[in-house]
Each structure stands twice: as structure tokens, then as C-alpha cells.
Write a structure and sequence with these properties.
The chain is mainly α. It folds into two domains: 32-186, Orthogonal Bundle (Tetracycline Repressor, domain 2), CATH 1.10.357; 188-315. Helix content is 74%, strand content 0%. The protein has helices at 7-10, 14-38, 52-56, 65-90, 92-95, 105-108, 113-133, 137-155, 163-183, 189-214, 218-221, 230-253, 258-284, 290-295, 298-314. Helix 9 runs antiparallel to helix 10 and helix 12 runs antiparallel to helix 13 (258-284).
């Protein structure tokens, strides 16, 4: 004769069922937060560069230009989020050895790799559809170039000294070009020079702070760092900053109207103050990300607002 547990005993207890019903929404919420964090919302403001060409040209270009610029912003935000996800999937093992990057959602395991890949594909599809929705294939081409360049960076270019800095800087320039093609506002050569040099300056500053903060451990987290020296990065940052300021002044001098020319030349003083403040902050090397130096330092913010005010009045 065989005996078994009563049927009721095989069922999940009411407490267990209630606990399970409460646990899965919490787990879903945690996964959703991890997914958003993995797309690096703090980096999204970089994509505001799509508004740079219309702003510098004092024109929204074609009818509804602001709306087209917003679409370009959304498309680049989706594409860059996809790139960050792919990059973090590929670098998960190395990130786990980094004192800060180990807390990223993918490296920490809060966001599974398969889920990250699905999100990346969704981001790329969103960017493509947004480009096609406004009937601007050139925008899709620029975003495609950005994604391709970013993937090449993740696959090997990030280990090539100098070239990896140019790739990072080119990502900013492509954002500015995306806004130009979306709104049909042709960018000037001086405008592109200022964007390129400013992006290069920020990229070099980022490497300088990483090298001075991590010291001999920097190469373990980013192998290309073994080829850099603090004095060389410092010099490169200041050269890029100086040439950028000269390019900005030449752009201001090229303005056809005296009002615009005067205010834009005046705004060069505020820009110079902001650049000098950035130089000072990177020299402190207190471990803060470069993005925080630009967006969270009170003095830096005041300089940026002063520049933006004078620049806008000039328009």
C-alpha cells in the first residue's frame, strides 16, 4: 500500500502565492530601472548637439524645422543608447574589475546580456524608423556611420592611441551634422571646426582624468592608456582648446551684421572663461566624470549660461 502527501499539501501555500504575486512586479521594476540605467541617461544631453547647426545659423531651415530637429534628437538618443548597450555587453568582464564600472547594470548582472542585446536592436530600429519617418535618408546614413564607427571602436579602435580620441570626437560632430541635414541648415566650416575641436578637447580631458586618477591601474581598465602620458594629454587638451577658441572668434568675425558680430565676439570671452574653468577642473583630477565637470560645477554653469545668453542675444 502506498501513501502520499495530501493534495492540499502539494499546493502552494497562500503566503507563498501572495509573496510570489508581489515579487514579480518588484523584479520587473528593478529590471526596468536597470535597462534605463544601461542606456546612460546622463549621456543623453550630448545629443542636444543636433540643435547646434540651426542655432549657429540662426535658422530652423525648412518649415517645421524644430520638429525635425527633435526627431533627429530622438533618433540619435536611441542609436547612442544601443551603442552603449552593445559596448557594455562586450566589456562586461573588464568592467567587473573597474571600481566604478563594475556597478553598471550589465557588469553587475542586474540586466542580463540577452535582454541588453534585444534593447540594443530595438534602439537601432527606432533610430532607423525615425529617420525614414521624416523622409531624410541622409540622417539615416549619418546615424549608420555613427553606429558603424562605434562598433569598430568597440571591436578594436579603442586600443589604438590617438585614433580612439578622434573616434570619440567624431561622434559629437556627427550629432551636429545630423541636426543640419534634418533641418536643411548647411553648417559652416568654422562651425564644424569649433564642434570638432571642442569634442576632441573633452575626449582628451576625459583620458587625462582617467590616467591621473587610476594611475598605474588605468591600463588594466583601458589598455590604450599605456601609450598615454599625463603631460602629453595635458598639452593636447590645451592645444585643442586654444585652436577652438581661435576658430570661434573667426566664426564670429565672419558674421555679416554688426549686431551679431559684436555679441558673438563678446560671447567669446564667456566661452574662454568656460574653457579655462574646464582646464582647471580637469587638472584637479578628483575622480568626477568629465560630464559632471561640465554640467554640475557651479562656476562652470555660470560661464556656460553667460556664453549662451550673449550668443542668443547675438542671434
Amino acid at each position: 500500500m502506498t501513501t502520499g502527501l495530501p493534495e492540499a499539501g502539494k499546493r502552494r501555500s497562500p503566503d507563498a502565492t501572495a509573496s510570489h504575486s508581489v515579487a514579480w512586479p518588484i523584479a520587473l521594476g528593478v529590471a526596468a530601472v536597470a535597462a534605463v540605467q544601461a542606456t546612460r541617461p546622463r549621456q543623453w544631453p550630448k545629443n542636444l548637439l543636433v540643435f547646434a547647426a540651426p542655432l549657429a545659423g540662426a535658422s530652423l531651415g525648412r518649415a517645421g524645422g524644430f520638429g525635425y530637429a527633435l526627431v533627429a534628437f530622438a533618433a540619435f538618443t536611441a542609436a547612442s543608447a544601443a551603442v552603449y548597450l552593445i559596448n557594455d555587453v562586450m566589456d562586461a568582464e573588464r568592467d567587473r574589475l573597474h571600481p566604478v564600472k563594475r556597478l553598471r547594470p550589465i557588469a553587475s548582472g542586474r540586466l542580463p546580456r540577452p535582454a541588453a542585446i534585444v534593447l540594443a536592436i530595438a534602439g537601432l530600429c527606432t533610430a532607423l524608423l525615425a529617420s525614414l519617418a521624416i523622409g531624410e535618408p541622409r540622417l539615416a546614413g549619418i546615424i549608420g556611420a555613427y553606429v558603424t564607427m562605434s562598433l569598430l571602436y568597440s571591436l578594436g579602435l579603442k586600443h589604438v592611441p590617438g585614433a580612439e580620441l578622434l573616434v570619440v570626437a567624431l561622434g559629437f560632430v556627427l550629432r551636429a551634422l545630423a541636426g543640419a541635414v534634418a533641418t536643411h541648415v548647411p553648417p559652416s566650416a568654422w562651425f564644424l571646426a569649433v564642434c570638432s575641436l571642442g569634442a576632441l578637447m573633452v575626449a582628451i580631458g576625459k583620458r587625462y582624468t582617467e590616467l591621473t586618477v587610476l594611475g598605474t591601474e588605468a591600463a588594466a581598465h583601458r589598455p590604450v592608456m599605456r601609450w598615454y602620458r599625463p603631460w602629453l594629454l595635458r598639452a593636447g587638451q590645451r592645444v585643442a582648446m586654444s585652436i577652438m577658441l581661435v576658430a570661434y572668434v573667426l566664426w564670429a568675425l565672419a558674421e555679416p551684421q554688426a549686431w551679431m558680430r559684436g555679441w558673438h565676439l563678446a560671447s567669446a570671452l564667456a566661452l574662454a572663461a568656460a574653457l579655462l574653468r574646464f582646464d582647471r577642473l580637469t587638472s584637479l583630477s578628483d575622480g568626477r566624470p568629465v560630464e559632471d565637470l561640465i554640467a554640475r560645477d557651479p562656476t562652470m554653469i555660470c560661464c556656460e549660461l553667460a556664453w549662451l545668453t550673449m550668443f542668443t542675444i547675438g542671434l
